[in-house]
From TrEMBL:
<dbReference type="GO" id="GO:0005634">
    <property type="term" value="C:nucleus"/>
</dbReference>
<dbReference type="GO" id="GO:0000956">
    <property type="term" value="P:nuclear-transcribed mRNA catabolic process"/>
</dbReference>
<dbReference type="GO" id="GO:0004534">
    <property type="term" value="F:5'-3' RNA exonuclease activity"/>
</dbReference>
<dbReference type="Pfam" id="PF17846">
    <property type="entry name" value="XRN_M"/>
</dbReference>
<dbReference type="GO" id="GO:0003723">
    <property type="term" value="F:RNA binding"/>
</dbReference>
<dbReference type="InterPro" id="IPR041412">
    <property type="entry name" value="Xrn1_helical"/>
</dbReference>
<protein>
    <recommendedName>
        <fullName>Xrn1 helical domain-containing protein</fullName>
    </recommendedName>
</protein>
<dbReference type="InterPro" id="IPR027073">
    <property type="entry name" value="5_3_exoribonuclease"/>
</dbReference>
<feature type="domain" description="Xrn1 helical">
    <location>
        <begin position="82"/>
        <end position="139"/>
    </location>
</feature>
Length: 141
C-alpha cells in the first residue's frame, strides 16, 4: 500500500512470501515453522505496482486518458463522470486500512475474512458515480 501512495507509476516490490494462515495455528507450531523457515531457502514474491494501478484503472473505467491520470466512466444516469486515478488510488488505500493491515487492526465491523473489503470496494464503485467530480474519501492524500 505504501508503494501505491507514492504515486510513482513504475514501482516494483520484492518480498518474502508470507503465509497468512499461520496466524491461526498454535504458538508451538509457529515457532517450529519459524525455525524451519530460517533453515531453508526462502520464496519471494515480485509485484509490479504498475500492473495493480492498471487493474484499478480498469475497475474505474479510467484507461481512456492515461496521459494525466484522469479518466471517465458512465454514471448511474448515463452521464459521463470524470475521475482522477491518483485520488481513486488514495481512496483505495484508505479503504484497505479500514479492514486492517500489518500495522493497524481492522475496524470491529470490517473483517477482511468476512469479505469486508469486497463490500467496501463495491459500495465505493457504485456510489462514486453519484458524487461530484472533486468528491473523494481522501482529500490531498
Amino acid at each position: 500500500m505504501l508503494g501505491l501512495v507514492t504515486h510513482e507509476p513504475h514501482f516494483t516490490i520484492l518480498r518474502e512470501t508470507v503465509n497468512f494462515n499461520s496466524f491461526s495455528r498454535g504458538q508451538s507450531e509457529n515457532t517450529l515453522k519459524q525455525v524451519k523457515k530460517f533453515t531453508k531457502e526462502s520464496n519471494f514474491q515480485l509485484l509490479h505496482l504498475s500492473v495493480l494501478r492498471e487493474y484499478l484503472a480498469i475497475e474505474f473505467c479510467l484507461l481512456g486518458n492515461q496521459g494525466n491520470g484522469n479518466g471517465s466512466a458512465n454514471g448511474t444516469d448515463g452521464a459521463v463522470v470524470q475521475y482522477d486515478l491518483e485520488r481513486c488510488i488514495d481512496d483505495f488505500v484508505f479503504m484497505t486500512f479500514l479492514v486492517g493491515n500489518d500495522f493497524l487492526p481492522h475496524l470491529p465491523a470490517l473483517d477482511i475474512g468476512d469479505n469486508a473489503f469486497d463490500l467496501l470496494f463495491g459500495l465505493y464503485k457504485d456510489l462514486r458515480t453519484t458524487w461530484g467530480p472533486d468528491a473523494y474519501l481522501v482529500d490531498r492524500g
